Model the fold of this input.
Amino acid sequence: MNTPPNRLQPPRVVKWSSDELLCNVRREHVVATPELKEKVRHDLWGDMCAEHDAENLWDHICNKSGLTYSKEFLAAMHEWRIDEQNHYIGLRQICSYMYEVGQDEIDHQLDQRKPDFGPISHFISDEFKICVVLAYDELVSARGYKMFVEEFKQFGPKEYVTWVLNASRDEALHYQNFLDVAKVVHHGTRAAVDEIMRDIVLYETNPEMTYNATFLMDHTEETFERSFLVDCATTVAANFSGL
Ligand SMILES: [Fe+2]
Ligand SMILES: [Fe+2]
Done:
């Protein structure tokens, strides 16, 4: 278990740019087979949508929720937002080249959707809960991208492999940053986190769950096994101690 610092340091961040990393990749460099393209379509497109939808979550949390936040939380959110926008830019190119859709068309399609935070409002009703839910979500993303590396190697461009490794690292840093705020600013307890994790796993493994462009709660059973989500939830809770 990591010991939190007494005072929170600035959020961990590694600056990089999808545009710079991928600027020399051309559509013809993508050599994924039609079978591989179909196999990864749901997950790849879903990841791109979620990265895009970080902006919806940001807007909801910071402009529409009516909540006020600590400066530590806002600092973590600021870096998170920049990273997620960068991830969207990268996946937008990858999906565009894999599925022959223009990047402008992707922007247009995704902007058409309207987020609905109603069904998940109880998960994001205060700063502590938001930190815990985001920590869980980021850990799932970090591990999910890591599991995707072997497929990315078969897409063709070596830059795509670097991209997915960078993204996985960023998600792991987000996980740590939100955990730190939950522990240091809110003195979160294991019992409180256990309860939130139980609710999340129940929510995400409900076959009726739908994803509503909220960034959070996009882990359907089509992509993630229940045991994987439970393991992530357990890992988050294990960072906390006490009642
Ligand atoms: Fe991301
Ligand atoms: Fe993230």
Residues 51, 84, 87, 141, 167, 171 surround fe (ii) ion (ligand 1) (CB under 6 Å). The first helix runs from residue 18 to 22. The chain is about 65% helix and 0% strand.
